[in-house]
């Protein structure tokens, strides 16, 4: 059931904004001058990467905005079409590089849908744990950097401290801190052990007080409210029309989450709420992310409490690697390992689309297969790219200083935007 994340009354800034706009219009009606075109980015701390905005200004007011992308384009989709399915896993780390575990899982699950494989229950639960840890990590960074963008430095220190703890958990789980390359088509490279299990539980016990502290620092802060309330308002209709997904869509009051709408990895077994906003402004998008972290904690505790026993990987003698011990002891297993490693999995012909609810929104993979170990075509639906499409509609009639607050509230990452 959808929940509003508005827990208290915030000042009505609409009248104030209207008065400011009217005063601005009165002072500029008699002024005749040229409009100024400026570049914001691609080398700019407030654009969160190599995003370039071409802004047309009338004084301090934006009259036209055009995002220019492609400065980080690496041709990931074409690379995928020239690699075995498993060889592309490390490249998914570099999409939303703030949540590499979630990218790994989304891609591997898409290929498994093509193969017709169903992961064992324990394998699904471990992937859920990985995805929700990635969601918390990405939102911690998003909220921390957003607060710093609008002048609140302390929050950044709180959130990055907790995010560093998640990196420690990633190292225990996968052996790597940042670019994990953890999943394989058909499972994971390793199971979760007791040490990691206990460490995650300890982290989850200590995280809620930190989120509450961040809430106290920001949610009633006069400066933060002035910078975010009624700034960058996206209506429900515009959010749907521009294809926004994730917290940016839910911040505009749309109760849609892929984990609920099209459950995968057993998400239908977990109890959690979908936070939605009321006004669709920058402040609502912040509140949605704050509540999503609390909901991810709920999911993680349920997954850890009911973690089933059994295998974590699909068993398919023709397309999955045999256990290492058997490879070292049997000539037949060694030959089988060699064939799978050099030729890749033997995928059937067909086409599939799979979408996962990533921290930035709906990350989708379309795979067209002609058979064999390499996809014929692979296309990605990157949520950051779609979310940024609303900027030409959103930024006009805002001040230049509002751009920083609006971009931070959208919480995009250029790695998956440009691909």
TrEMBL record:
The keyword NAD applies. Its main location: membrane. Keywords: Cell membrane, Membrane, NAD, Oxidoreductase, Quinone, Translocase, Transport, Ubiquinone. Residues 149-419 form the NADH-quinone oxidoreductase subunit D domain. NDH-1 is composed of 14 different subunits. Subunits NuoB, C, D, E, F, and G constitute the peripheral sector of the complex. NDH-1 shuttles electrons from NADH, via FMN and iron-sulfur (Fe-S) centers, to quinones in the respiratory chain. The immediate electron acceptor for the enzyme in this species is believed to be ubiquinone. Couples the redox reaction to proton translocation (for every two electrons transferred, four hydrogen ions are translocated across the cytoplasmic membrane), and thus conserves the redox energy in a proton gradient. This is NADH-quinone oxidoreductase subunit D. It comes from Sulfuriroseicoccus oceanibius.
């Amino acid at each position: 059931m959808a929940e509003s994340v508005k827990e208290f009354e915030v000042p009505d800034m609409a009248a104030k904004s209207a008065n400011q706009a009217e005063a601005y219009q009165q002072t500029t009606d008699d002024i005749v001058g040229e409009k100024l075109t400026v570049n914001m980015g691609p080398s700019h701390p407030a654009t969160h990467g190599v995003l370039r905005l071409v802004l047309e200004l009338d004084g301090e007011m934006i009259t036209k905005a055009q995002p220019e992308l492609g400065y980080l384009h690496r041709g990931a989709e074409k690379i995928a079409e020239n690699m075995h399915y498993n060889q592309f896993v490390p490249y998914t780390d570099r999409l939303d590089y703030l949540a590499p575990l979630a990218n790994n899982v989304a891609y591997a699950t898409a290929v498994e849908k093509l193969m017709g494989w169903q992961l064992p229950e324990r394998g699904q639960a471990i992937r859920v744990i990985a995805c929700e840890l990635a969601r918390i990590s990405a939102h911690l960074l998003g909220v921390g950097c957003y607060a710093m963008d609008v002048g609140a430095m302390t929050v950044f220190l709180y959130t990055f401290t907790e995010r560093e703890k998640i990196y420690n958990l990633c190292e225990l789980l996968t052996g790597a801190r940042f670019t994990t390359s953890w999943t394989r088509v058909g499972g994971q490279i390793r199971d979760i052990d007791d040490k990691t299990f206990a460490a995650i539980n300890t982290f989850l016990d200590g995280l809620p007080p930190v989120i509450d502290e961040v809430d106290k620092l920001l949610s009633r802060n006069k400066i933060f409210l002035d910078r975010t309330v009624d700034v960058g308002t996206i209506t429900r209709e515009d959010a749907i029309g521009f294809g926004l997904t994730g917290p940016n869509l839910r911040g505009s009051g749309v109760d849609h989450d892929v984990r609920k709408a099209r459950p995968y990895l057993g998400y239908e077994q977990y109890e959690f709420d979908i936070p939605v906003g009321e006004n669709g402004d920058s402040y609502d998008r912040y509140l949605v992310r704050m509540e999503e972290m609390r909901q991810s904690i709920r999911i993680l505790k349920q997954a850890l409490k009911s973690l089933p026993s059994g295998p974590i990987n699909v068993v398919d003698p023709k397309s999955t690697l045999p256990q290492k011990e058997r490879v070292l002891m049997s000539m037949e297993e060694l030959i089988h390992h060699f064939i799978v490693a050099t030729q890749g999995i033997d995928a059937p012909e067909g086409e599939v689309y799979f979408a996962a609810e990533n921290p930035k929104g709906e990350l989708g993979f379309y795979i067209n297969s002609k058979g064999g170990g390499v996809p014929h075509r692979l296309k990605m639906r990157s949520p950051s790219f779609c979310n940024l499409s609303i900027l030409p509609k959103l930024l006009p009639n805002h001040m230049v200083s509002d751009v920083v607050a609006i971009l931070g509230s959208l919480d995009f990452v250029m790695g998956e935007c440009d691909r």
